Amino acid sequence: MTPIATSDTTQQFLSFLLPPDIQALLPTQQVIEILNLTSHQIVPIAQVPPEVLGVCNWRGEVLWLVDLAALIGTQVSPNRLCDSAYRPLQLHTIVVQHKGYVLGLVVEQIGAILRQDTSETYPILATPNPLQFAGCIEGCWLTPEGKSQWLLNGEALIEGFCLRRE
């Protein structure tokens, strides 16, 4: 078998789905762990923005959990833990870390690990809503089917979220 040739600009990315129907990617070196949580493992916090779902115990520490689609502004949704009609059976969570901060990004569905060439990234021209965290989106790729895959920066998400909280 011939090894796959990779260039200096090829990286691995974790793919996932955000509502309403956005395929997104995070560099795997920014991902610490993937968790599947139930609503019973999450403690809601009063008087927080609607994108904050609450906190959970992660390795003996408090992990803040945010609805990534609501955080970046692709979908405005009520807090999914407050109303049983919005309570999913599992919350797919991507744990990211940067500069000592750890954050749980709740997404609709976890996909596969993909290898992409970062030199082939295009700017995002249109979004469904004005984005709150536009700086966290580094660009996109087009799939062979013509769908875009957003490249997100977990470090920028953490910095933006933590700065808003302080």
Q: What is the fold's blueprint, element by element?
A:
Layout: E1 10-18, E2 22-27, E3 31-37, E4 52-58, E5 61-67, H1 68-72, E6 91-98, E7 101-107, E8 109-117, E9 137-142, E10 148-152, H2 154-165
Parallel strand pairs: 2-10, 5-7
Antiparallel strand pairs: 1-2, 1-8, 3-6, 4-5, 6-7, 9-10
Report on the architecture of this protein.
This protein is globular. The strands form two sheets. A five-stranded mixed sheet has the order 8-1-2-10-9. A five-stranded mixed sheet has the order 3-6-7-5-4. It has 166 residues and is mostly beta strands. The N and C termini lie far apart (53 Å). A hairpin with a 5-residue loop joins strand 9 and strand 10. The protein has a single domain, classed as Beta Barrel (OB fold (Dihydrolipoamide Acetyltransferase, E2P)), CATH 2.40.50.180. Helices cover 10% and strands 43% of the residues. It has two helices and ten strands; from the N terminus they run E-E-E-E-E-H-E-E-E-E-E-H.
Tell me the strand order in the biggest sheet.
Answer: 8-1-2-10-9
Percentage of residues assigned to helices: 10-25%
- Characterize the overall form: globular
CATH topology label: OB fold (Dihydrolipoamide Acetyltransferase, E2P)
Provide the low-confidence segments as ranges: 1-6
Strand content: 35-45%
What is the level 1 CATH name? Mainly Beta
Radius of gyration: 16 Å
Mean pLDDT: 81
Short descriptors:
five-stranded mixed β-sheet; mainly beta; single chain; 166 residues; OB fold (Dihydrolipoamide Acetyltransferase, E2P); 2 helices; globular; disordered N terminus
